[in-house]
Design a protein that fits this description.
With 767 residues, the protein is of the alpha/beta class. It contains 30 helices and 32 strands. A 6-stranded mixed sheet has the order 5-4-17-16-15-6, with helices on both faces.
Length: 767
């Protein structure tokens, strides 16, 4: 059985020729309309239903799009996006994967299908269990499925031989039940997708200002006078963010994008709820400056900005370059940071950043001229060895001018998945705080384990070395989202049991344990009826707003159960004598929220707060300039300047990313309109000089070879080399295909995040 799909097996099967052409925004704007129309025409009978759900895609109407986590604190009825339409329609498809489908196809056969075709079969309809004798999934009752989970878990020598993974799609209420089940069972092995995405952000912000989240709100984005956006492609990852960028430029704020690639989102956009603009395809600017930094060079660039701030202070001590009153009252470690920055040479800062001293000074002047500044960032910053140090450097720069704890200023990590921030808030954390565990134990009458659990990287290692025997996944497509695809798939196959709670068929169902279950759940668009009546669940956006989401559509199958009902069934089967009211929690989700209100800081009165028209924002001490760090102050960090330049001049630094026409591991087509790509995913973007140095022409077939930290090598063959505006020495390509290049040893020692934005590769012409 193949470990991974055949070469080229991720996108939709097609024989159409590929093309690559320069990005042109007006054409792309028309392309957006055509793309949406194509999706809706393809699913004609869903047009009315998808339109209904998407006009409810804001808190007042009570539906939270299962796509990105960008906030909406105003209830803008038309602030929707192309990707949201695709995402909801993809979930609401009329196609079904039922018992007849599984009877017709063995797992070995399905493993040869591409990933587009697997998901395009439609919604899963009933629980299925893998039958080794026939190599097929066969129907199983819910009770028998739960019993299988309970039997396998209770048979383990230790609870730590199980891992409970979640993607960001899980609601707050389901998250709370999930971690409660794991901890009552006896383990903190609750890895999540944040381990691969924003773990560095959380660790850095906690160390600096004692919160794992950004301190700003959407209102602050409307008030800032300068906005620095690093390692973000808003058009694909947080499309509604484009509205905020356009409004910032329009009202006169400076918007500086810093990224190796100058993305379409960093140029212009069409604001969705401005109907006249949409009708005439008029665009709005989304930036005032674009800076192409070397991959991994962000820390050097920000330190260069700090150096310019100190030089401005030295030149005019009364000019206000530095907020000394704020520093004296609220920070610790300032003088050591000053010494570190002043000792750094401009030549080295410029070399490491890949940006000239002149341009760094220009960016710094924007910061110096701004009364209120926000720094926002995404995975282009975090998925590096020194990701934690880089985010802490952002905080250092903000502290210099008092840009934390006041309107229009602060750090703002961009979460690109619906409820990944809520997952962490509500207990999905492999290394939880004592205060959280103590509150959980007091409320739920359990004794939680205190030993830190396994994160995603260590879970994969554990499956491969035999120490993890049962793997449960709530949502996501773990085998494709994780690094080292073959190694991850091999680990799943070593398990005694794998459990996938899913809405659609995907690759992770085919890389399964000795025993395996597929448990189909309701989608967020669907009605959730329980004993007490219709239920709603809550989600937390990227700026700490918690709002209720209520599905309205008829479920895809009468056999589907909610995520909470599935969790409750597995928990009861695992812990038959548990005093936890699993069934009562599911009968009425208000009961879960009552318990959560007594465990989670800032959730007092949860049931009342979340049912307000716009929900509520979780209070943050750091926002009030109260810093619960060991010193009681915001902490400057003093990290050495990392080396972002490979020792070997022949090595390129490759970064993985989404195409525009995909969402995480779900691929809607092989097009990437905003990068000018048609019908192609097996490609690598390269600088023209790097292509010329290697004797490569546009569209030439190339082999890409990565060398891991442990010296092992991985390769992808017959990819097309495409010229793109990238810094010399940089390359880029699509995930999940290129996750195969990231070795099991290739993770940050600071955050344990896989190094998906810093893959050391050699690229040569295919033979």
């Amino acid at each position: 059985m193949p470990d991974v799909p055949r070469q080229g097996g991720f996108g939709p099967a097609t024989s159409r020729p590929w093309s690559s052409k320069p990005y042109h925004h007006p054409a792309a704007a028309w392309g957006a309309a055509r793309s949406v129309a194509k999706v809706l025409i393809k699913e004609r009978e869903l047009f009315k239903g998808s339109a209904t759900m998407l006009t409810m895609n804001h808190p007042v109407r009570g539906f939270d799009c299962p796509g990105c986590a960008w906030p909406d604190d105003k209830g803008v009825a038309l602030d929707i996006c192309e990707n949201g339409i695709k995402h909801v329609t993809w979930e609401m498809t009329h196609k079904r994967v039922d018992r007849e489908f599984f009877a017709a196809h063995t797992v070995t056969e399905l493993a040869t299908w591409n990933d587009y075709d697997l998901e395009d079969q439609g919604r899963l309809t009933e629980p299925m269990s893998y039958d080794e004798a026939t190599d097929r999934y066969v129907p199983v009752t819910w009770d028998d499925a739960f019993a299988m989970v309970g039997d396998e878990l209770r048979a383990l020598d230790t609870p730590n031989a199980a891992a409970f993974y979640t993607s960001g799609r899980l609601s707050n209420e389901a998250t709370f039940l999930y971690q409660l089940w794991a901890r009552e069972f006896g383990t903190n092995n609750v890895p999540d997708c944040s381990n691969m995405c924003h773990e560095a952000s959380g660790r850095a912000l906690n160390a600096s200002i004692a919160t794992g989240k950004g301190t700003v709100s959407l209102a602050d984005w409307d008030e800032c006078t300068a906005l620095f956006v690093l390692g973000v492609n808003a058009a694909s990852n947080a499309p509604r963010m484009l509205t905020s960028l356009a409004h910032a430029v329009k009202r006169g704020a400076q918007v500086v994008h810093i990224n190796p690639m100058t993305e379409a989102a960093a140029t212009r956009t069409i604001v969705p709820h401005e109907v006249g603009q949409m009708a005439t395809f008029q665009t709005s600017d989304t930036s005032t400056m674009n800076v192409q930094v070397r991959p991994g060079g962000d820390l050097a660039l920000i330190r260069g900005m700090a150096k310019a701030v100190f030089e401005a202070e030295d030149a005019d001590p009364r000019g206000g370059a530095i907020d000394h009153d704020f520093l004296e009252r609220f920070t610790d470690g300032f003088e050591d940071y000053r010494a570190l920055v002043c000792a750094a040479s401009w030549d080295e800062l410029s070399r490491q950043a890949g940006v000239s001293e002149k341009q760094i000074r220009e960016i710094a002047q924007v910061y110096l001229d701004s009364p209120r500044s926000i720094i926002a960032w995404c995975l282009g910053v975090t998925q590096h060895e020194h990701g934690v140090d880089t985010v802490r450097e952002f905080t250092n720069l903000l502290l210099l001018r008092g840009n934390i704890g006041r309107e229009g200023a602060g750090p703002s990590p961009i979460r690109g998945h619906s409820n990944v921030q809520g997952n962490r808030t509500c207990g999905i954390d492999h290394n939880p705080s004592e205060s959280f565990l103590a509150a959980l134990d007091a409320e739920c009458a359990i004794v939680s384990p205190r030993t830190p659990g396994l994160d995603t990287v260590k879970t994969i290692q554990g499956m491969n070395d035999g120490s993890v025997r049962v793997f449960v996944a709530l949502g996501g497509n773990f085998v494709l989202a994780a690094p080292d695809t073959k190694y991850t798939a091999k680990g799943l196959r070593e398990c005694a049991l794998t459990v996938q709670v899913s809405t659609k068929l995907n690759r992770s169902h085919l890389a399964h344990g000795r025993r395996a279950l597929i448990l189909p759940c309701l989608g967020r668009t669907e009605r959730d009826e329980q004993e007490s009546g219709p239920q709603g669940v809550s989600c937390e956006d990227a700026m700490s707003n918690v709002q209720l989401s209520v599905g309205k559509k008829k479920p895809a199958s009468r056999h589907l159960r909610s995520e909470l009902a599935i969790l409750s069934g597995m928990a009861r089967a695992t812990l038959p004598d548990s005093a936890t009211p699993w069934e009562g929690y599911v009968a009425d989700y208000d009961r879960i929220r009552d318990s959560m209100s007594r465990v989670l800081p800032g959730f007092d009165g949860f049931n009342d707060l979340v049912k307000q028209p716009m929900g509520f924002r979780i209070p943050q001490a750091a926002r009030e300039r109260i810093f619960h760090t060991p010193s009681g102050r915001a902490e400057f960090s003093h990290a050495p300047l990392p080396n972002a330049i490979p020792d070997d001049a022949d090595v390129l630094v490759l970064q993985t990313m989404r195409s525009h026409d995909q969402w995480n591991t779900t691929i809607y087509s092989s097009d990437d309109r905003y990068r000018g790509i048609k019908n192609l995913r097996e490609l690598v973007f390269m600088n023209a000089d790097d292509m010329r140095d290697r004797g490569l022409t546009e569209g030439a077939f190339v082999d890409i070879v990565s060398t891991s930290k442990d010296g092992t090598q991985r390769s992808l063959t017959h990819y097309r080399a495409i010229t793109y505006d990238l810094p010399v020495g940089a390359a880029a390509g699509y995930m999940p295909e290129m996750n195969a290049l990231v070795g099991a040893a290739d993770y940050s020692t600071q955050s344990d995040q896989p190094l998906m934005k810093n893959i050391q590769v050699r690229i040569v012409a295919s033979t």
